[in-house]
User: Fold these one by one.
Assistant:
Number 1:
Amino acid sequence: MNCSKCPTSTRAVIGLPRHNAAFCKACFTTFVHEQVARAIKAFKMFAPEDRILVAVSGGKDSLALWHILLALGYRADALYVNLGIGAYSEESHRKVRHYADTVAASHGAKLLVHVVEQEAGAGIRELATILHRPTCSTCGTIKRYQFNRAAVEQEYDVMATGHNLDDEAARLLGNVLHWQNDYLDKQSPTLPASVEGFAKKVKPLCRLSEREIAAYAVVNRIDYIVEECPMAKGSKMILYKEVLNRLETESPGTKQRFYWGFLDKQTTVAPATESMAEKDQRTLAPCTTCGQPTTAGTCSYCKMMAKAKTAAHPRA
Amino acid sequence: MLVQLSHPHRQVEIKGPKRTKELLRELNLVMEAHLVIRGDELVTEDEMLADADQIEIRPVISGGSG
Ligand code: SF4
Ligand SMILES: [Zn+2]
Ligand SMILES: [Zn+2]
């Protein structure tokens, strides 16, 4: 297979059936950068002078996102949350630090780190046991909270996550299967800072498939953690992704039509009910303990931390 | 050829020469969910892989709910 862009016959490193194309290393890197630039523009994610905080995990998506934003000349720092999941957390932390030192630093970008164990006194799995909650939902609450806090306190204009086309298509499938209308609202690649204390959130990789991003990481020699978080095993998301990939193999472009089609409808069909921002403004108020916006008096993060502390010192 | 797989981490010996596409089919793996790497270079599905090649098949699907 030869590159479909190069005039001379250069060997392709990846075929992209959904685009009817194949690219060599250089043309593929350009293709990825263009896709991200298009998403940033189409969904009004951020401007050249904005300060961006990238949520990094050590996996392919978030490190590739950081890499792409720096390559495009944006001012992007990153935050890593160490969850305290044994060898997995140690290894992913090492990969992030390595990338920050060897690549990001030369762009003047810095890495912020939050260690769950330091603030909560226990890793995420122990916390989940104490709280009688599934590990992933405990994890979700902590990560969302810490990323938002860092973005707001350190005055970043926007927070960027590495969610890709497969993530969004799989999430959409799950939401549609269960008709989770409320969640459908939150599937836009740009979520505005609806109230004081909430950072604006964007997903610049929403036009790229998981495979394309992994390929970008390999081609650009980004050293990421291939192993999965051990808690992800058997998750519904993986099942949805497998189903979508089987459909994709039979008819290339399925995932893209599914998710982009949804986004198109979302923008052309005027929302019948109040917008997400209006709803947020009506229902959210500052947490009595930490001040972050919440629908309850005390936010779920502060409740979690209070419970974790009582469990650690039952008599105090 | 020596083929390295992940989840769980293991190695299998497969007879070459063989196209990438056929190698994946033989291992019952979907192209859309994997990358095939020879040495440290990515290869396309129609690439012919030789018996002496060092191959890594890397899964690209990740799945936490966060
Ligand atoms: S799989 Fe679950 S525990 Fe692991 S990082 Fe994802 S959300 Fe957190
Ligand atoms: Zn080319
Ligand atoms: Zn709070």
Number 2:
Amino acid sequence: MRSDDAIRATQLTKVYKYSEQAPGLKGAVKGLFKPVRRERTAVDAVTLTLPKGQVIGLLGPNGAGKTTTIKMLCGLLRPTGGELEVLGHQPHKRSFDFLSRISVVFGQKSMLWWDVSTYDSLLIHREMYAIPRPVFDASVAELTERLDVAHLINIPVRKLSLGQRMRCELVLALLHGPDLLFADEPTVGLDVVAKLALRNFLAELNRDHGTTIVLTSHDMSDVAALCQRIALIDHGVIGFDGNLQELRQRSGQHADADLDQVLAAMFRGRS
Amino acid sequence: MTRQLRLLRILTVQEVRMMMNHRGWLFLLQVANVLPPAIALLVWHGAVDQGADPPVSTTYLTSYLVLVSVVAMVTSSWTSGFLAASIRLGGLNSWLVRPCSTHLSYLANNSAEKLLKLGLIAPPVVVLGLVFRHDLRLPGEPQRWLHFLPALIIAAAMTFAFDILIGSLAFWMEDIAAIDRLRYLLARLLSGGLVPLALFPAVFQPFLAAQPFRFLVSFPLEVLLGTTHAIDYAYQAGWFVVLVGGAVLVWRRGLRDYQGAGA
Ligand SMILES: Nc1ncnc2c1ncn2[C@@H]1O[C@H](COP(=O)(O)OP(=O)(O)OP(=O)(O)O)[C@@H](O)[C@H]1O
Ligand SMILES: [Mg+2]
């Protein structure tokens, strides 16, 4: 085993179990007595090794299994099959050491407490991760400066705009200096300026702190700007794993085709 | 451990600050909590004046009904609904990826609520006590109060565990509201929160003494008013183990099946 790998996944699989319900009251009653049980394989035997310090972009159409993969990597979901080691831990055990070395940003979900200011949330995280006061002060100073939110962190979070809040989310997520950051669609809904700021910030984070980043985005320009490596997922299977150039070649599009076209060609080729 | 305690403290302070925004609503809630026992008191006093002969003394009845709203408030918990929603809608995700138990945040939420409500419920209870001061006998021995406190805290812990147990059923069930409602109705009836258990017919007494709901409200008051037997502590310990053990078990099993909805 190489200890300089952040993530080692072998044949990683997740099968969701759920029951289907026909519409209306009739469906509800039927579901009560004869539930239709279904299974969906969201991630299907994914094998992936990520060295420390790399930025990888998980790309794929809606429902491909990107979020499910991230949820297994960060310990939210227990894999149905396969082997998984993240920072030397089995994520689903959710040990303190593991949880204090990772961080998760979901574009669709907030980690901040909405009724209080960002700074109050930061104070809670200070206790949660047992961050010494001087380290805390230095981190807050650095992060608020880099993300340009010094003027926002004392305002109740519910009064911030989406883009402002997203930048504050990042301050909170990175306060404890994680080695590994999962960012699931962090740029969704952001305007171009905010998107660029966030993108630059993540690039700097990787460059200056060596933070390993797993990113998903439907915005190809995010991926092109940030990711040294791209993994294409479709129907829970990794169909391509390499860099941008290789992706262009593989898609069979012209060298100057834009990235959306490249990607669309890849997805069409698979289904 | 000290990290958890510091965390609990800061989360509680935060909850108090957020709840202060709703203090008017909380106050009305407390007045509403004192009303049923106040009415029960009036009814009983009327009945006794008419010649009714309850199986307990008027002073016991009065002291019980004056204090019951405080005990019921301290031992209550409102976590099950929140927990179920957070499991079903994926709000739990935000907790599971951080080194902090979601239960610690609910504990902070409950403690904050108790702190605030204690201040708010005191005035109406004092008024009630003054109105019925001739029949009110609060025990003078510090001994009784010393035994009352742990019984009260254990009762609160049991209700909290019960809440986690029922809320965790949301790992497998779409809707736990019906079960929660049923538990609530049983608790209203069997905990002694509304009517002192001593007033039920004698044939039911052995059953009432052994069932779990008694230990959620009635028992601490019985300890304070000095009407318990040695065996009762064994019952209490037994139900404590069942509820806390059950909550831990169901929670752990549930996490394994957790689907982490959303995002
Ligand atoms: N809790 C769940 N129960 C059942 N099926 C689920 C559940 N969560 C996700 N799925 C299914 O698993 C598959 C993968 O979903 P996932 O959220 O991982 O996709 P994604 O790649 O993140 O998509 P998107 O780009 O739309 O965010 C989808 O078909 C989805 O319907
Ligand atoms: Mg997704």
